[in-house]
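Following up on my earlier message about uracil. Here are the inputs again, as you asked, copied directly from the submission form:
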Amino acid sequence: RPELPADESAITSWRDAAAAAQRCTRCDLHCHATQTVFGEGPLDARVLFVGEQPGDKEDLAGRPFVGPAGQVFDRAMKEAGLDRARAYVTNAVKHFKFQLRGKRRIHEKPNVGEIKACRFWLDLELQFVKPRFVVALGASALRSLTGHASSLASARDRELALEDGTPLLATVHPSFLLRLPDEDARSREYARFVADLARVQQRIF
Ligand code: URA
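Thanks, got it. Here's what our run produced:
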């Protein structure tokens, strides 16, 4: 096993980063997950989306947002006039964290330590993609990108920015929409999510 570079300067390309991330032991999540799920998308993407962490399907496929939340994301992107194939899509945490219940692997929220440890990889993705616009999907992504805890509700309608000035928009995580029990609330919140994505579309073109 090649040594994992200790700092970012040893990694000079997205390819190096993606390969090195497969051997990551910066937190304990690598012990039980199937594989690292690194971000994907064109390196000249104008917009970079950050989710929370891979789910069950993503962990097995090795690709972000390919499960149920990914389907909601794909549909909303289309409705907002955004092409997912032209966006870079990644997660705040790159290993699946779960609790085993019988044979089912139940998603567990990453903690602050795991989010901070994985920021190393997100920083590299930001550095190599240099997006014009970043979107935080949910509170964990927002926590990672801003470095501090803040409520999604208060961040959602504000214009935020990363430390380097890149504009940041916070919106809900698509799986939040899947969890809403009430159909009316679900369609209302879904429409609001699409409206947020449409705002992104207007900002990047
Ligand atoms: N939820 C996420 O936050 N990311 C994924 O890749 C899939 C589900």
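One observation from looking it over: The pocket of uracil is lined by residues 51-55, 58, 64-65, 67, 69-70, 91, 175 (CB under 6 Å). Hope that helps, and feel free to reply on this thread.
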